[in-house]
């Protein structure tokens, strides 16, 4: 019962875009992480993995013969707090080059 009193701990996740030559081996990718989306037309897979295992998983993915390339999602690295700029004059600043293009 002592373990059930602990709060659920969220793990940091990172998205990977795995470009493949063929989608026949899709089941093999499921062992590396959670398959979120599969594009049949463009032949890529969105895969979510634990951030702590990211480099090891990427190295293992590159070893697979059907993987063309692996891209890392940079969304967790982007600061998403826009509260300071939204509704202020800084959000509506326009450069001089854009004003010249609009007047033409």
From TrEMBL:
<protein>
    <recommendedName>
        <fullName>UPF0298 protein TEHN7118_1862</fullName>
    </recommendedName>
</protein>
<dbReference type="Pfam" id="PF09902">
    <property type="entry name" value="DUF2129"/>
</dbReference>
<keyword id="KW-0963">Cytoplasm</keyword>
<dbReference type="InterPro" id="IPR016979">
    <property type="entry name" value="DUF2129"/>
</dbReference>
<comment type="similarity">
    <text>Belongs to the UPF0298 family.</text>
</comment>
<dbReference type="GO" id="GO:0005737">
    <property type="term" value="C:cytoplasm"/>
</dbReference>
């Amino acid at each position: 019962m002592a373990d059930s009193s602990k709060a659920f701990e969220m793990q940091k996740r990172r998205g990977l875009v795995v470009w493949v030559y063929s989608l026949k081996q899709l089941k093999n990718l499921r062992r590396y992480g959670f398959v979120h989306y599969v594009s049949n037309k463009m032949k890529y897979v969105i895969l979510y993995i634990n951030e702590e295992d990211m480099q090891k998983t990427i190295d293992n993915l590159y070893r697979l013969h059907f993987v063309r390339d692996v891209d890392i999602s940079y969304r967790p690295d982007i600061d998403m707090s826009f509260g300071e700029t939204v509704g202020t004059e800084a959000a509506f600043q326009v450069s001089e080059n854009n004003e010249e293009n609009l007047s033409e």
